[in-house]
Amino acid sequence: MSLTITALASGSSGNALLARYGDAALLIDCGIALRTLEELLRYQGLSAAGICAVLLTHEHGDHSLGAAALARRHGVPVVCNRATREALGATLQDVPVEDLPAGELAAIGPFDVRSFAVAHDAADPIGLRLSAGGASVAVAVDLGSWNETTVAALRGADLLVVEANHDRELLRAAPYPLAIQQRICSARGHLDNVQCGELLSRACAGAVCDVWLAHLSAQTNSPQVALAGVRRVLDLAGVTGARVRALPRRAARGAGGAPTWCAEERMLTQRSLF
Description:
Blueprint: E1 4-9, E2 16-21, E3 24-28, H1 34-43, E4 54-55, H2 61-64, H3 67-74, E5 78-80, H4 82-88, E6 97-99, E7 105-108, E8 111-117, E9 126-132, E10 135-140, H5 148-154, E11 159-163, H6 168-173, H7 178-184, H8 193-203, E12 209-214, H9 223-237, E13 242-246, E14 260-262, H10 263-272
Parallel strand pairs: 3-4, 4-5, 5-6, 10-11, 11-12, 12-13
Antiparallel strand pairs: 1-2, 1-14, 2-3, 7-8, 8-9, 9-10
Helix pairs in contact: 5-8, 8-9
């Protein structure tokens, strides 16, 4: 068995990561409509009822939209902290909810999950570190700044899923009201490509790891711009072991249409390097 991570959606129009280990599967965020989610899961050979839990990083709709519907229709528990639950209010009425306070560790099936606080304009936003079968993935997809706690939470993960939301110059040129621009680039907003690169240069220093750039803005970023910006920072920092790719905003329909990372394949690749 091997830990696998599949990106079903990434961006302001919705976020959802699928983690699988053996017969167990869970979601990190569910910011897409239930019908869309069910379709994407079918392409992965899963039914929604086969999900053992959905972990919410925070209450914003692009991360939580389909969580309550999934829970009601298929009996899938929602795992979040108390502030996120309270922020969602009646949305989670009559839904099975399990509490995971920021900084705490929980076992969900074969997965060990630890949450860590991040800086974002939500009630109590978190990142997640998920482990199974000796492999781990760290997820920090909505944050406007980072600190040593963030670096420590990401360091040592085999796969890092980190926000590279916008390019600074493209944001300045975007037809957004000033208040929106200020919110995006604030310390509790979203990381730009340079900030993402700086975080990764610390978290990936001296290590071999895979990196997914997530939550790219459709208006103020692109995969090409994000990759170039992040790689430039990593090159300047002398970080050579990070293999970086940018996630699409929505997985393509059909078998093999969603970006998937497999811990076993990563280990085989590492062995071939020595």
